[in-house]
């Protein structure tokens, strides 16, 4: 009997995580259309488009967060494609956004300080996303480097938009994580 109850609870949690993933991916996708700045060879600074994915990762863990980020990355490639090579596609879209799924990695280490866990996870996720874009930039976009810049320097400079984008999401998310009612709601999930 216990096994049946456990299976039902697992199934309900699995269903809940799928529904939340769909909602968070859709919300992130919708928010990605609200752009503060768009770069000529792809990339933009948005209004907290990464925040729903970051919260999802915090709520359901990094495995599910990485998968949600991967799916979101594929949607981004459909929304506004700038694809010149298959490896570049993987680095700039599914892999880069899958890194956002690591936002929840510190949740179990800072249980008493969820805001710290969120900030550190967001920083790690943002740096890894940025790194993926930089590698892609060096590999595939070196011919677009600005005058006087090496491919490496241009890759770091051009893709710095990703750091601004994650910083906006971390600041907005920190305000949410500073709210006790929000934390209480997260714990109920």
Give a structural overview.
The protein is mainly alpha-helical and 189 residues long. The chain has helices spanning 2-31, 51-60, 62-79, 86-98, 114-140, 151-158, 161-177, 180-188; strands at 35-38, 44-46. It has a single domain, classed as Arp2/3 complex 21 kDa subunit ARPC3 (Orthogonal Bundle), CATH 1.10.1760. The chain has eight helices and two strands. Helix 5 (114-140) runs antiparallel to helix 6 (151-158).
Briefly summarize what is shown.
By secondary structure, this protein is mostly helical. The protein has eight helices and two strands, in the order αββααααααα. It has one domain (2-188): Arp2/3 complex 21 kDa subunit ARPC3, CATH 1.10.1760.20.
Key traits:
single chain; mainly alpha; 4% strand; 189 residues
Itemize the secondary structure elements and their pairings.
Layout: H1 2-31, E1 35-38, E2 44-46, H2 51-60, H3 62-79, H4 86-98, H5 114-140, H6 151-158, H7 161-177, H8 180-188
Antiparallel strand pairs: 1-2
And the CATH topology? Arp2/3 complex 21 kDa subunit ARPC3
Number of extended strands: 2
Please give the CATH class: Mainly Alpha
Q: Biggest sheet, strands in spatial order?
A: 1-2
Q: Which structural class do the helices and strands define? A: mainly alpha
Shape: globular
Task: Provide the succession of SSEs.
Answer: HEEHHHHHHH
Tell me the distance between the termini. 24 Å
User: How many structural units, i.e. domains?
Assistant: 1
């Amino acid at each position: 009997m216990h096994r049946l109850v456990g299976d039902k609870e697992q199934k309900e949690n699995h269903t809940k995580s799928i529904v939340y993933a769909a909602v968070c991916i859709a919300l992130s996708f919708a928010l990605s259309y609200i752009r503060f700045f768009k770069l000529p060879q792809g990339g933009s600074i948005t209004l907290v488009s990464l925040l729903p994915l970051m919260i999802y990762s915090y709520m359901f863990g990094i495995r599910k967060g990485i998968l949600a980020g991967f799916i979101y990355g594929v949607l981004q490639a459909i929304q506004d494609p700038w694809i010149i090579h298959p490896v570049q596609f993987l680095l700039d879209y599914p892999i880069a956004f899958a890194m956002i799924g690591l936002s929840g990695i510190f949740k179990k280490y800072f249980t008493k300080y969820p805001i710290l866990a969120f900030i550190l996870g967001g920083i790690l996720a943002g740096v890894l996303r940025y790194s993926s874009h930089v590698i892609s930039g060096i590999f595939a976009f070196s011919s677009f480097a600005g005058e006087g810049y090496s491919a490496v320097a241009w890759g770091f400079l051009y893709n710095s938009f990703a750091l601004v984008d994650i910083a906006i999401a971390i600041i907005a998310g920190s305000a949410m994580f500073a709210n006790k009612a929000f934390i209480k709601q997260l714990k109920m999930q």
